[in-house]
Amino acid sequence: MKVLVPVKRVVDYNVKVRVKSDNTGVDIANVKMSMNPFDEIAVEEAVRLKEKGVATEVIAVSCGVQQCQETLRTAMAIGADRAILVQTDEELQPLAVAKLLKALVDKEQPGLVILGKQAIDDDCNQTGQMLAALADLPQATFASKVEVEAASGASAKGQAKVTREVDGGLETLEVSLPAVVTTDLRLNEPRYVTLPNIMKAKKKQLDTVKPEDLGVDVKPRLKTLKVTEPAKRGAGVKVPDVATLVQKLKTEAKVI
Ligand code: AMP
Fold first, then answer.
1. For a pocket test of ligand 1, which of 5, 9, 36 has the largest count of ligand atoms closer than 8 A to its C-beta?
2. What keyword terms does UniProt attach to this protein (predicted)?
3. CB distance 34 to 77 below 8 Å
4. Kind and range of the H or E run holding 227
5. What is the rounded CA–CA span in Å between residue 23 and residue 13?
6. Is 215 helix (H, G, I), strand (E, B) or coil?
7. How many other β-carbons are positioned within 10 Å of the β-carbon of residue 145?
8. Least CB-packed of 109, 117, 128, 218 within 10 Å?
9. DSSP reduced 3-state for 25
10. Closest CA to 44 of 77, 14, 8
């Protein structure tokens, strides 16, 4: 069974982003970029499936600018076997990415597509769900545990049990393969990328295609009207005793 893992290049989660002065978006010039953390978890899970002998090949795919190659090399250093870059300078929105991934699903016929539940830059939480709908595949989102029973070899058949953290407990679903699974934070802890593996990843196969080659129009459909900073928090006050605190909560904050 092949596993396809979409990975997005995003602003590193440690960076404190700034809104551009004209409020058109966030300034990403000269900012550290990394793999979306949920996607790192997805790559780790796919590589573990390969190590268990369940997956036969792990293919990482990223859609975006040429520098996404670095993200793909990181995925291959974690253990992905090969990578595909769908290269475009166009701003990609989730529907466009889902269409590109659908075209790659048709081509590669994976048994499992495992992707992040959410990209930390746009916070859309849409791509996996849209892909499942476009490719007419079952989906299990926000996975905190994935157990796959795949048919042997390159076959995309089998089933997966996916545990999801829901309000008040854990829900376990069974989906037949091929399927789309999106990862939650507690699914696993991705391994550290070692230098020898970074060197090995440089020799792995990285193919580049264009959206036109896949027959997909990726022009943005949504227009961002405005991006603004969150309101600044006011300074706190120190109160001398509990009675004053309770009185202030009642009369000033009006929360009790
Ligand atoms: P989103 O729907 O934008 O929150 O993204 C959810 C997931 O879709 C991400 O965690 C990635 O796995 C995948 N994804 C989104 N955009 C891209 C992209 N440009 N290239 C590859 N994968 C992507």
1. 36
2. Electron transport, Transport
3. no
4. none
5. 21
6. coil
7. 16
8. 109
9. coil
10. 77
- Residues flanking ligand 1, CB < 6 Å: 6-8, 36, 38-39, 62-64, 92, 94, 97, 115-116, 118-119, 122, 124-128
Amino acid at 229: E
Atom of ligand 1 nearest to the CA of 115: 12
Q: Where are the domains positioned within the chain?
A: 2-253
| Distance from C-alpha of 255 to C-alpha of 156, rounded to nearest angstrom | 55
Q: How far is CA 193 from CA 49, 200, 244, in A?
A: 18, 11, 53
Q: How far apart are CA 92 and CA 68, in angstroms?
A: 13
Helix (H) or strand (E) holding 11: strand 9-11
Entry pTM = 0.91
- Quick check: 89 and 156 in contact, CB under 8 A? no
d(CA 158, CA 161): 10
Do the beta carbons of residue 155 and residue 133 sit within 8 Å? no
Nearest by Cα to 214 from 59, 102, 60? 102
CA of 57 to the centre of ligand 1 (A): 21
Find the DSSP H helices in the chain. Answer: 37-51, 68-78, 94-108, 127-135, 195-202, 242-251
Q: What is the pLDDT of residues 80-105, one digit of tens each?
A: 999 999 999 999 999 999 999 999 99
In sign, the C-alpha dihedral spanning 149, 151, 156, 157 is: negative
CATH dotted code for 2-253: 3.40.50.620
